[in-house]
Amino acid sequence: MQHLDLAGRYGDNDQYRMLRDEVQELLDELNLIARLNFRPLVSGGFGTDANITSLTASSTDIYILDSANQVIRHAWGTPERGFDIDSTFQCWDSKNTYEALTSPIDIVLQRAPGALGAEGMVAIDENGTLLYCAPERQPALAQLTPPDLGWGRIQAIDVYGDDLFVLDPVVNAVWIYEASGGFFSGTPELYFVEEVRDLKSAIDLALAQDELVILYADGRVDRCRRFRESVDDGGRAFRVECDAEPFFQDDRPDRASSQQIPGAVPVEMAYSAPPEPSLYFLDLLSNSVFHYSMRLVYQGQYIPTEPFDGEISAMTLGPPNDLYVAVGSQVYHTSPR
After folding, report:
1. What's the half-sphere exposure (Cβ side, CA atoms, 13 Å) at 287?
2. What sign does the CA torsion over 269, 271, 272, 278 have?
């Protein structure tokens, strides 16, 4: 490939391009790189000058947070049949504004029955205000009870079962809120009590079943599990165990284990549920997605066949095998496996 790069300075022809394609295919095979066809989700995208900062999806629905135009949109369909923008969706836009709600930071899926009696999504703003939205339902607004320490900076949220997990790196905490009637409420619990982690540089979290995975700005991850223990007075106590030094493993030739993904700057993370539980990382440097097993063993890298016009700004997964990425005003879909 280096020789071809040199030869290309003097021009190219059909033979040159064929040879280059052949070498690239061999390199991709060696590096487990899949060049995939990312198809636009809807014709024309999701609005002029959109800046899509968060996505969440089910098997038939996808929700889009456009921070530039201050709107949350909903599209439904399937990758096989195509998607349509839901023009009747009521959530957060110029027609549905709320005094108590500032610009949402993150959105996550909430399974049925949820807060609105149907599968929908939950958005959170910097003050802990929650907005619940679902198709053909009136949105609902609620306020999380602030921790005694107050909020530092809400960075990301995730939902597992009836629990909402809130990452606040400024106060070095992950807070847990239980759902009551689908609404997350009550006094929050600290995830880390005895074994406190240094979360100052944490940028994302994901709940992999009962395992909490935290992504840091330098590319490291923490993997922790929380166990309930009985106490003498009949109350409840929790013990948290974290992997001492999680390492990314790579079985490719001449690759060594490391605490970061080699040659990558991951900025977002998503968990893929069974039957093939995995972790996906959005890489800022290559504008692509890395795939690792739950043991942090490299599985592959997903690159668009035709390079995107801009940077990927958000990523999410949908069952059973759907990967969605946002670029500019458009969301693209592909099926990695």
Report:
1. 13
2. positive
C-alpha dihedral sign at 74, 108, 69, 53: negative
Contact 250, 256 (CB under 8 A): yes
Query: How far is 159 from 206, CA to CA, in rounded Å?
Result: 8
Residue with tokens 């629990």: 163
How far apart (Å, rounded) are the C-alpha atoms in residues 191 and 225?
A: 10
pLDDT at 28: 83
Share of the chain above pLDDT 90, in %: 74
Under 8 Å CB-to-CB from 131, ≥6 apart: which residues? 72, 91, 92, 98, 101, 104, 122, 123, 124, 125, 139, 140, 141
HSE toward the beta carbon, residue 198, CA cutoff 13 A: 3
Output the CA–CA distances (angstroms, integers) from residue 184 to 58, 116, 139, 206, 323, in the order listed.
20, 12, 15, 18, 28
Q: Are strands 61-66 and 33-36 parallel, antiparallel or unpaired?
A: unpaired
Task: Report the distance separating Cα 84 and Cα 78, nearest Å.
Answer: 9
CB of 190 within 8 A of CB of 238?
no
Rounded (5°) CA angle 295-219-302: 70
**End-to-end CA separation in angstroms for the chain:** 28
CA–CA dist 175, 48 (Å, integer): 36
What span, in angstroms and rounded, lies between the C-alpha atoms of 119 and 134? 6
Per-residue pLDDT reduced to its tens digit, 279-310: 999 999 999 999 999 999 999 999 999 999 99
Query: What is the sign of the dihedral through the CA atoms of 164, 170, 171 and 173?
Result: positive
Peptide bond into 113 cis (omega under 30): yes
